[in-house]
Amino acid sequence: MSPRFPKTFDRPAKALSPQEASEEGLWLAAEIALHDERYHGQDAPIITDAEYDKLRRRLKSLGDAHPAALADEVGVAVGAKPKVGFEKVAHDYPMLSLDNAFDDEDVREFERRIQRFLQISDPITFCCEPKIDGLSISLRFRNGKLICAATRGDGHTGEDVTRNIQNVSGLPLQIDHQGGMEVRGEIYMAKGDFAALNLQQVAENKPTFANPRNAAAGSLRQLDEQLAQSRALSFFAYGVAGPQGDDVSQFDQLQDLARLGFAINPDTARLTGADALIAWYQKRGLSRAELPHDIDGVVYKVDDGALRQRLGFVARSPRWAIAHKFPAETATTILTNIIIQVGRTGALTPVAELVPVNVGGVMVSRATLHNEEEIQRKDFRVGDHVVVQRAGDVIPQLVSVVSEKRQPDALPYHFPKICPCPLASKIVAEFDEKTGKKDAVQRCSGGLACPHQKRERLIHLVSREAFDIEGLGPKQIDLFMERGLIDQPADIFTLRLREEQGEFAPLMTWDGFGRQSAENLYGAIESRRTISFTRFLVGLGIRHLGTTNARLLARIFPSMKSLIDAHHLGNLKQVLMEVDGVGGAMAGSVWGFLEDPRTRSMMEDLAAQLHIEAELPKPIMGGKLENKIMVFTGTLANMSRGEAKARAEQAGAKVSGSVSAKTDYVVAGADPGSKAKKAADLGVALLSEEEFMRLLD
Ligand code: IVH
Prior knowledge:
Layout (H helix, E strand, L loop, with lengths): L17 H24 L7 H17 L22 E3 L8 E3 L2 H15 L6 E8 L2 E8 L2 E7 L5 E3 L20 E9 L2 H13 L8 H9 L4 H6 L3 E7 L9 H10 L9 E4 L1 H14 L7 E8 L2 H7 L1 E2 L2 E2 L2 E5 L3 E14 L4 E13 L2 E7 L3 H7 L6 E6 L6 E5 L25 E5 L6 E7 L6 H12 L11 H9 L6 H4 L2 H6 L14 H13 L2 E3 H7 L7 H10 L3 H10 L2 H6 L6 H12 L1 H12 L2 E3 L15 E5 L7 H10 L3 E3 L8 E4 L5 H9 L2 E3 L1 H8 L1
Parallel strand pairs: 2-13, 21-22, 23-24, 23-25, 25-26
Antiparallel strand pairs: 1-6, 3-9, 3-10, 4-5, 4-7, 7-8, 10-13, 11-12, 14-15, 14-17, 15-16, 15-20, 17-18, 19-20
Helix pairs in contact: 1-2, 3-8, 16-17
Bound molecules: 2-(butylsulfanyl)adenosine.
């Protein structure tokens, strides 16, 4: 969850002014889009479903309270933009989402809403189905033959995964039906197949999947179709899109689909009235662990086709259906200790150590406690029986204490006043500039001297988004730190020289290193001695300066000299604040970093070891390739693709990752692959590397 909620978030939607509602609405829409992309686009969510639903609910209530103030598109987007690599498919009928019910009252209100809308008082009959935790798919059939299978994507355009679903259990490729038909359903991986896949991944030294949903998503959206087809996926049909699904009862429609050869969920019921729905839901909640597949709730759909047609849709979901979600998976265990983790910028995160417990199929032995305020509010004490919760990929959290089981001698937890490192620096809580309140995050004041921060900074420096030094990870950093060979970033780049000068035994003689791995490591370090100014800035680990902000900074100050000069002039903060996209927080932390003689000399020592490449200035207006859309493919002989891209951009071109009719040039190096073929098919100009260079000259 984003650490910075708008100030208005905790106030009732109705109490906000239209201006406030609109501002918060835009923030929510952006936040939701980010999490949609993490969930649907990257299969790697960073918040729980419950937190996500909270954002959605808030946006909805803002929209209800201030319909005029919230732009139409807010809240309409469903899912994420399609992943590049698959052909895009426009859905004939949008693939929408479902509204959620979290408690009995939400279900009762759902039925009442329908009755009000239809102006009837009789209880409503629903078709009740388990909500499978997989991925929705749209299957287009023509004259009985499957012609296209598409993922949901953003609800309007999905990805063509037809080739990947040739082997899915319960999904026929040929059916007995004339004309067109679009079947909708869920692709999932059964629990047993998921366990087998992970075993195989381990045996092949490949990363495992966190849960069946991620495994299904990773398999379905796999660009290697043979690999995708080898994965054990299953399918349940849950409806027919478009007019054909309109006048039939939902329950009967499922039976029709079963007759055509589709697998349908055997646990489907036709029930009348909210009370019957709630009882049905409760039973499924108790027995879900015994099912061969994951379900995350149940779905109620108005059974009668004519009523469904009258009810229609609101922005992103049908009025005639709702998902009644199960609460996140929880388990009870014992809190054995609370430890404090120190981050790169000194932020302290309390972490609960637990007696390992199985939470929804995953063993959990640690959970986050967020901050001091959270520990106090919920009164977690070492020795307590606690409820731990896990949802999807998200870091497990402690939810509450089982107070009846508290031991009489359990003591309240006191957040330390000093950092747990040998320096024992003071811990400070900062003031939040906006609210004027003390920041919930506590920080170690030791700065660069704190060994924990030092370690985290070094690990960050060598990480992928910064210097990206292969073979130098946390394990190796710890080893070099323990031996006193690396203390500051610059030390990484003097290692080899110091070895040659006999300062320490040759790396190749160390445990765990051989001639080759020592050579590789030194080679990797050497290859990063030349580094772009952006990566250099990211590597410094300045708070609020990730890649995006570093890029922004490097565009204003393309070299270290220009940055330091601006700092000397004394107006750096002001200059930065005037730049679009740079906030006070970032300006302040960059300024603070340069102002502090310790961080400043750390930076200068590191820079002295490197060749820092100044960032290329902005593209020249009227450049030779102005507004041309270019694609690079294959291996170039005289420059990396990154450099070629930068040069093209410098000359005013826009560089794209995929070829379309709009592409002006495709530059093909050796082994160009399918992009060159596509360019030829579309009649797009194909250039060799030499021709590209001539064009630039
Ligand atoms: S009906 C208009 N039925 O849940 C939407 N969805 O947020 C019609 N799901 O995207 C969806 N089981 O991926 C429906 N029995 C079921 C379902 C189901 C799982 C998924 C589906 C959908 C999401 C709703």
